[in-house]
Amino acid sequence: MKIIEHYHPANIREENQTICISVIVTAYNIEAYIERGVRSICDQTYRNLEIIVVDDGSTDTTGALCDRLAAEDERIQVIHKTNGGPAEARNVGIARSKGSLIGFVDGDDWIDPDMYEKMLSALLEQNADIAICRYRQVHKTYTEDASADRAVLFEGQEALQYYVEEREEYAIQNAAWNKLYRREILADVTFPVGKWYEDIMFATVALSHADRCIYLDTACYNYIIDREGSIMNTQINPRTFTDQIPAYVEKTKFLQNLGRPDLADVHDYFFYKRLLLFYNQIKEQDIPEKERYLQKITDIIYSGRERVQKVFACPVADPRDRRKAALFLKSPVRYWQKVRWENRVVIPCKAAVKATLRHMMGK
User: For the chain, which residues make up each domain, given as ranges?
Assistant: First the structure.
């Protein structure tokens, strides 16, 4: 890994923009957002784009808006299909695409004007297979942006490792949309049709294929966090158990078969830690399936008891998480009592003490 401070990829003059980038946009019932998203792609400083908008069976005016935008810009192709979910829509877009590089944009988000010029320039300068950028988290009333004036060059499986380790300082993430891929990297990579959380395995396999990745620690993508109706805003639900958890299990098997049992252990640490967080969330919800969901999570954790004990001892594991997992294995009831006590008493008290100290120091 090499950190490059103050890295700014060179501009690509329009006459030198000879490489075609295929940008695949998925759209389903987002009439209030789709025009902004597609226009942000059309307005890119890098002009040699093939823009493939997949209308995934929208029942509002999304499809008509896509057709109108295509009439204004000859680079736009619109595919209207019956609803099959974002995974299938992206696969359809990939199959239609002809560019040497492939990027993805969710139709309710938007991108900065120079996103693809920066990413392509960096990819070419560093001879990388995948370029990755940071993204802004756009909430209804504020925006989070942790950009830093630097880039990070990952060699071999370093990007895969940092992704599995969920390193917060590098926003690699599951997302397909903050990355630009050489086409050959995706030769045998597809999204699992009909599944939610489709990015989990896609990102894992794609990163495993890359010999070199360049990460731009500058936000170029604007990701809407709290759009009403978004899949990602859905609470714990049946898809958590039919799609998300199986995807994590598949990811573990893939890493083991890749010859990286160390990364499989790290991933499972975060997986079981996430299950404990799911358990906490469900405890706080008032839903009909509450007891059934709690039992499902308990069964998964207890059936993997030996695995849980092993992965919570891996080098990246937080000792506090290890203690919580051990308590859960002894008694989910006692575990929840401890979590509730911390959430309702300990954490608020610590926050109050910190606030008092800040106030005193301010005086």
Answer: 2-231, 235-347
- How many whole angstroms from its chain centre is CA 228? 19
Query: Do 214 and 136 touch, CB atoms closer than 8 A?
Result: no
Low-confidence ranges of the chain (pLDDT < 50): 229-233
- Pair 1, 153: CB distance under 8 Å: yes
22: enclosing H helix or E strand: strand 21-27
In this prediction, residue 344 carries a pLDDT of 82
The confidence score (pLDDT) of residue 355 equals: 65
∠ Cα 206 235 344 (to 5°): 115
- Distance, in Å, from the CA atom of 101 to the CA atom of 272, rounded to the nearest integer, reads 36
Cβ(105)–Cβ(111) below 8 Å: yes
Contact present, 146 and 119 (Cβ < 8 Å): no
Q: Residue 64: CB partners within 8 Å, gap ≥ 6?
A: none
Length of the chain: 363
Residue 233: predicted pLDDT = 46
Classify 264 as helix, strand or coil.
helix
The DSSP code sequence of 230-257 is -GGG--S-HHIIIIIHHHHHHHHHHHHH
Regarding the domain delimited by 2-231, which CATH topology (the fold level of the hierarchy) does it fall under?
Spore Coat Polysaccharide Biosynthesis Protein SpsA; Chain A (3.90.550)
Which of 351, 141, 166 is closest to 248 using CA atoms? Answer: 166
pTM listed for this prediction: 0.91
List 144's β-bridge partners, or say none.
137
**What tokens were used for 45?**
């400083």
CA–CA gap between residue 68 and residue 225 (Å, rounded): 27
